Structure formats: structure tokens, C-alpha cells
């Protein structure tokens, strides 16, 4: 689903649409399991990181280099055999860069645009290949993690073992997903070897954090293993009245009675406190973003509680068949107050009028995926045949109220003012069911691999919109069904080069209601042609990939100012078609001399084929044509006089992009620098084994330029420096 403007930045979705952005609405007045993996002869030998998985998103990695994943095919498949662009953020990358958000985690992956909405700790909002993936492209352990309105699950990077990224339409296996692809977040799982970690962090903006990660066998006799990961954070941010506080606990349990059977239970609870809005005031007279906080410090609370419990079961029936069932129930509740400054006061120009609102949302999601994998031969053809049936039920409820806040006083902009009580005026309840069945065959003939798959989905959506003041309810029912497919061919040479070609489609039903028509949105459809090459260098732990792609998406969603009976409002409308074409280059390496590196370059040309008046033929807002990134980490070896010291440096280049779909102004290009330094105290004496110190900095030179998306402007997040003292045993 392509959302041009603010769906991912929403304070709150309108109760009528389920996705309208509250703080951008025009107001009424103005509107660690490890194993030594096999190595090629002569290759550098590093420790493989194996994320337990089956179909849960297994990543096998050597340092920074992902080698295989279950994300690309729902079966553990080497990257060079996957006929689609795929990459990973490995556990070692997470340790070296110490990301604090999902956006930090993905900042160095090709095609991924983070930071289009500047500083905002509320949501992890990003695009890939020019398309929003916030609502439809985030998966957890190979199961859908959908969102609706402001109900978006927050991700704690410390709870991840890695991220596996499949770019491009991928509904042939996964059902509802967008044109940009999917990001599979892989939860930390129990390890068979004992592992214990304690860590203390302190950073800028009074950031205090303590965290722990314990794992291993329950005892020496039984096949039971556990893991429990948690943290507590008390932190301010660069914006007044916008904290970044969190409590997080994630227990996990694994039963493995033999090599043919495994049951893993994964749980999580978190409570996050931040602000109802984090926006800066945009001056309507100059069109520029100011340094004034647009909200009201006395009316700017947002508390989100979320939890999940699920399991992954795998049993090998015989030498041919394996059965898997993965299931999860997730729930979140977000309760927030917000205010938004929108225009100078007509009487006193030193005052800025503010609207206000309050909302309460709840999202419950249950999803289950049943699979049977069969491995067999037909003559000279080797088959890996996967069949499956999955089911998702989403229940979303939104209560929304609107009012006014005392104006912002520019002579005392940090002062808060009491807001009169605001009653809820609307309620939206949405119930969505999705059932999909799929089949895929990976057919190998010598060096050739043909991947063919197809899926059919049925989706039922019922929506009740209630006007609480008038005590009236409108009920709308919608049924959608669609076939999705993928076919791809790859060839692996003896020297590690693997060219491929593929075609794939995606299908994404849209939650919410079109306020302009009063009808549900049609599903967003997309298709992609991709050709590329992957090169796993012989005798070197290095993977280089290149991909050319063309994606067409129709029934796109836009945000547009529309005159409604209640006045002008910035709402979602559906009348678009997007075409995105581009090139992606990526290189990952981890060498035995202590150097690890990730580098990428992306060229993206995302244009509006059909859309709002004045936008046809233009480029999609805030999607740079050129993006590039480089992160390198070097650990000094034992022969060095500074043995134990590690240094990391990174640079992220963002080219120019347009500030709105009308292409009347541009965001300037910029380079943001990151850095890290670490020291392992075991280099001094073995009695300090397991003790290390690390300092990470993002946006090192504190570059805070304006960045505008769909005509609204933000500021880049400023410099953050975090020191971590870690002890492992």
C-alpha cells in the first residue's frame, strides 16, 4: 500500500477513515544461538550466527554477511538461490551499531528511506523502493504484523536477533503485503548453550537504560531451553514533553525432544510512554518549519501497552515431509492526547491557534500459518514443495474526540496550558478476516533453480462508524479476493556468481473508509519485474548483489485536502497509480583481519502515473532519486598495541527529493554521519573476560535540516550519543 503523506506519522486516524492523520488535519477553523558453519576451502573463518527458525525467519550469517534465510521462500534457502532481492541485518551488525529504534536498525539497508518524517519517536515509519511499508510490510517471525490508524506495534531492537528483508511484491507466499516488500523482524530465541548479559546505558537527553539477556538449558538432563530479555528506560528527547520511556520483557521457551521435533514459545510485553505529537509548527505564511513545538506540553501524553504470545511448532514426519504450524496473538492499546498549532491568531499575532484531541485505540491480531514441506526428486529434478494455509483476524477499535487548546504563546513557547475536557465524538470498529492458501515449488536442475508459486486470498471486512453525539451507526461490509504469484529463475556458476530474473505480484486490502465517498477502499495491487545478480566471492566472506526493478502499483492511496461537509480536511483518497523503477547495489563483508563492512547505493525513480490533480507525471514526495550508505567497523587484532579497541564509522547520503507530490520545492541533499568506539577489557587481563565498553553516536555533527513530506515539514533528528557498559558470561 502506497501512502504518500502522513499515514505513518499519524497522531491518530480519524474514526471515519481509520488512517487520517490527526495532527495534520486542517482544523475546523483553518483546516544467541551460535554454531561453526561449513566454510569453503581457503575462506575466512568466522563464527556463524544461526537464528533458530524453521519457517520463522532463520538467518545463517557470518559476521555481517547473511548467507541464507527462510524469509525469501518460507524454507531455508541460500540468498544466491532466491530469485528476488533479499538482504539482512545480522546480529553482529546490531551489536556494533546499537540501534535504538527500528529505523536505526534499517538505516543502512538498500532502498530503505528512513527519516522522511524527521524526529518522531512515536512510530517506525519508512518506505522502500518508493512505497510505504509501515502498515503492510512489517512481519514478525514470518507472520503478519499489521497496523491500523495509529495502532502500530513498536519494535524494541534489543529483542531482535536480526532482520531479513525481501524487497518487491511478495504476496505469493505472504498474502497481504505491499509493493515495496517485507521486513521480517526475528525475535531472540532460546540458545542451547548458556548465555548471560547485563548492560547499562547512559546517553544524551538524560537517557538511562538497563537491560539483560539470559538464555540456555533449563537443566542438564531435559531438552528444555529458555531465554528472557528485558530492559527499562527513562529518557527525555530533543522535544519538550516528548519522553521516550519503555519497559520491555520478552520470555521465550523451547522444547526439543529430538532432532525431528521442536516447539518454541515466544512472548513479549512492553509499555512505552511518549508524546501525542512531536511536530514542529509550520508557518503557513512562509511555508517553513519553525523551532516552535506545535503541541501543548500540558496536553501531550501517549501511552502504548502491547503484548504478544505465540509459538512455532515443527515436526519431521519422515525423510520427505515436514509439518510446521506458527501462530501468534498480539494486542496493543494506545491512549493519547494531542494539540496542534496551525495558524496565527487573528487578534494577537504573537499567539498561534491550536486544535486539540484525544483518542483511544485497541488492536487485536490473531494469525496462524500451517505448512507442509516436501523434498523429493523426479528424475534429475530436485523439488522443495511447500503448501500452506494461513489465517489472520484483525479487530480494531478507535474512539476519537476533537476540541481546542489554548493558543501557543510565542513569547513563552515552552509553557503548557490546561485543556478543557474533550469527550469522544466518534467510534470506529473494524473486523477483518483473511484466509489464504498457497503452493510453491523450488525446482533445482544442476546449477539452475526455478521457483514457482501462487496464492489465493479471501478477505472480509466489516466496519461500523458511530457518531456518538447523534447516536447513529453506519455499517459497511466489503469482500475482496485476489490471486498472487511469483516465478523466478536463477543460475549459480562454479565461481559464486548467480544471475536471476523474476516476476511477482502483491495484494493489500486497505483498512479504513474513504471520507470523500463514504465507501471502503479497494485493495491496492502491484506487480514487479526484477533482474539481478548475486556474487558470493570465492575464498572470501563477501556477498555483492545488484538488482534492476520495475514496480507498478494501482489503487494507490493519497492524502489530499478535500472539502467535506464539515470543512476542509487532509484525508486519504484512492485514485492513484505509481510506477517505481530503479537500481540497487549492496556489498557485505566480514574478514578475518577484523574489518566488517556494509555498503549500498540506490537509484529510485518513483513517479505518479495517475493521481490527484496537478500530480500526474510528478515524482513521489520525499523519495530521493539517489541514496547511499557505508558502515565500516574495524577491531584491532592481537598483534596491535591497541588490541581490544574497535572503531566504527558510517555515512548515510540522501539525495534531493520533492517536498510534496506537486513537485514545487525540494528537500536538499544531506550526509549524516554515525560513529562507534568500543573496548574489550579482556585485552588487558583475562580476569576482565566478558567486560566491554562501547559508545555510539548517530548524526554525529548534529545536522538538523528541514525535511518535508507531502507538504508538511519536520526536522532531522539531532545528535544522540549513548555509552554502554556490558558484561557477558
Automatic annotation (TrEMBL):
CDD domains: ligand_gated_channel (cd01347). Residues 81-181 form the TonB-dependent receptor plug domain. Keywords: Cell outer membrane, Ion transport, Iron, Iron transport, Membrane, Receptor, Signal, TonB box, Transmembrane, Transmembrane beta strand, Transport. Residues 256-700 form the TonB-dependent receptor-like beta-barrel domain. Residues 1-30 form the signal peptide. InterPro entries: Beta-barrel_TonB, Beta-barrel_TonB_sf, Plug_dom, Plug_dom_sf, TonB-dep_rcpt-like, TonB_sidphr_rcpt. It is found in: Cell outer membrane. SUPFAM superfamilies: Porins. Pfam families: Plug, TonB_dep_Rec_b-barrel. The keyword Transmembrane helix does not apply. It is a multi-pass membrane protein. NCBIfam families: PRK14049.1, TonB-siderophor. Belongs to the TonB-dependent receptor family. This is TonB-dependent siderophore receptor. It comes from Rhizobium sullae (Rhizobium hedysari).
Amino acid at each position: 500500500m502506497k501512502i504518500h503523506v502522513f499515514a505513518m506519522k499519524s497522531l491518530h486516524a480519524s474514526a471515519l477513515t481509520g488512517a487520517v492523520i490527526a495532527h495534520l488535519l486542517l482544523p475546523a477553523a483553518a483546516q544467541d544461538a551460535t554454531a561453526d558453519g561449513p566454510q569453503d576451502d581457503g575462506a575466512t573463518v568466522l563464527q556463524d550466527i544461526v537464528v533458530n527458525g524453521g519457517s520463522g525467519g532463520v538467518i545463517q550469517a557470518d559476521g555481517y554477511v547473511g548467507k541464507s534465510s527462510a524469509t525469501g521462500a518460507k524454507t531455508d534457502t541460500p540468498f544466491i538461490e532466491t530469485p528476488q532481492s533479499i538482504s539482512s541485518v545480522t546480529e553482529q551488525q546490531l551489536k556494533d551499531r546499537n540501534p535504538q529504534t527500528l529505523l536505526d536498525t534499517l538505516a543502512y539497508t538498500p532502498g530503505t528511506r528512513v527519516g522522511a518524517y524527521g524526529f518522531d519517536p512515536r512510530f517506525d515509519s519508512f518506505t522502500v523502493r518508493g512505497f510505504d511499508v509501515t502498515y503492510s510490510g512489517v512481519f514478525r517471525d514470518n507472520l503478519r504484523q499489521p497496523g491500523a490508524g495509529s495502532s502500530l506495534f513498536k519494535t524494541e531492537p534489543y529483542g531482535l536477533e536480526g532482520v531479513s528483508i525481501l524487497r518487491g511484491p511478495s504476496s505469493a507466499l505472504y498474502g497481504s503485503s505491499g509493493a515495496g516488500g517485507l521486513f521480517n523482524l526475528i525475535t531472540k530465541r532460546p540458545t542451547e548453550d548458556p548465555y548471560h548479559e547485563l548492560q547499562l546505558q547512559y546517553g544524551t537527553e538524560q537517557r538511562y537504560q538497563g537491560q539483560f539477556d539470559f538464555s540456555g538449558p533449563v537443566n542438564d538432563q531435559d531438552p528444555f531451553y529458555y531465554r528472557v530479555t528485558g530492559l527499562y528506560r527513562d529518557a527525555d528527547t530533543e522535544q519538550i514533553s516528548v519522553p521516550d520511556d519503555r519497559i520491555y520483557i520478552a520470555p521465550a521457551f523451547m522444547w526439543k525432544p529430538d532432532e525431528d521435533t521442536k516447539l518454541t514459545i515466544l512472548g513479549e510485553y512492553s509499555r512505552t510512554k511518549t508524546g501525542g505529537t512531536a511536530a514542529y509548527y509550520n508557518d503557513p505564511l512562509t511555508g517553513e518549519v519553525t523551532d516552535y513545538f506545535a503541541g501543548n506540553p500540558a496536553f501531550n501524553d501517549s501511552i502504548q501497552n502491547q503484548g504478544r504470545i505465540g509459538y512455532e511448532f515443527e515436526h519431521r514426519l519422515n525423510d520427505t515431509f515436514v509439518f510446521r504450524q506458527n501462530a501468534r496473538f498480539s494486542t496493543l492499546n494506545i491512549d493519547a492526547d494531542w494539540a496542534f498549532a496551525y495558524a496565527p491568531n487573528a487578534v494577537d499575532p504573537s499567539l498561534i491557534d491550536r486544535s486539540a484531541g484525544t483518542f483511544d485505540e485497541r488492536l487485536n491480531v490473531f494469525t496462524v500459518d500451517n505448512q507442509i514441506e516436501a523434498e523429493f526428486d523426479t528424475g534429475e529434478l530436485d523439488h522443495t514443495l511447500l503448501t500452506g494455509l494461513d489465517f489472520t483476524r484483525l479487530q480494531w477499535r478507535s474512539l476519537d474526540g476533537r476540541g481546542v487548546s489554548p493558543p501557543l504563546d510565542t513569547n513563552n513557547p515552552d509553557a503548557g496550558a490546561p485543556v478543557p475536557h474533550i469527550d469522544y465524538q466518534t467510534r470506529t470498529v473494524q473486523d477483518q478476516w483473511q484466509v489464504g492458501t498457497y503452493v510453491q515449488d523450488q525446482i533445482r536442475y544442476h546449477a539452475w533453480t526455478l521457483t514457482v508459486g501462487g496464492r489465493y486470498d479471501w478477505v472480509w471486512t466489516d466496519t461500523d462508524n458511530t457518531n456518538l453525539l447523534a447516536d447513529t451507526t453506519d455499517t459497511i461490509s466489503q469482500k475482496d479476493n485476489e490471486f498472487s504469484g511469483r516465478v523466478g529463475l536463477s543460475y549459480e556458476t562454479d565461481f559464486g556468481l548467480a544471475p536471476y530474473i523474476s516476476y511477482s505480484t502483491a495484494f493489500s486490502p486497505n483498512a479504513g473508509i474513504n471520507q470523500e465517498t463514504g465507501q471502503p477502499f479497494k485493495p491496492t495491487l502491484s506487480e514487479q519485474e526484477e533482474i539481478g545478480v548475486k556474487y558470493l566471492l570465492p575464498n572470501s566472506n563477501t556477498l555483492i548483489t545488484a538488482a534492476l526493478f520495475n514496480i507498478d502499483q494501482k489503487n494507490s492511496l493519497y492524502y489530499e485536502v478535500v472539502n467535506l461537509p464539515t470543512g476542509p480536511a487532509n484525508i486519504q483518497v484512492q485514485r492513484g497509480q505509481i510506477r517505481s523503477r530503479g537500481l540497487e547495489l549492496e556489498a557485505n563483508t566480514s574478514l578475518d583481519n577484523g574489518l566488517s563492512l556494509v555498503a549500498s547505493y540506490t537509484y529510485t525513480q518513483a513517479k505518479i502515473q495517475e493521481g490527484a490533480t496537478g500530480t500526474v507525471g510528478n515524482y513521489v514526495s520525499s523519495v530521493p532519486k539517489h541514496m547511499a550508505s557505508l558502515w565500516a567497523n574495524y577491531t584491532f587484532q592481537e598483534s596491535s598495541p591497541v588490541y581490544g579497541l574497535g572503531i566504527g564509522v558510517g555515512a548515510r547520503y540522501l539525495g534531493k527529493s520533492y517536498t510534496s507530490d506537486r513537485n514545487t520545492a525540494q528537500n536538499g541533499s544531506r550526509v549524516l554521519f554515525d560513529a562507534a568506539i568500543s573496548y574489550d577489557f579482556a585485552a588487558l587481563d583475562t580476569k576482565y573476560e566478558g567486560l566491554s565498553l562501547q559508545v555510539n553516536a548517530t548524526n554525529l555533527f548534529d545536522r538538523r535540516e528541514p525535511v518535508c513530506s507531502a507538504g508538511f515539514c519536520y526536522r532531522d533528528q539531532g545528535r544522540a550519543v549513548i555509552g554502554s557498559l556490558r558484561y557477558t558470561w
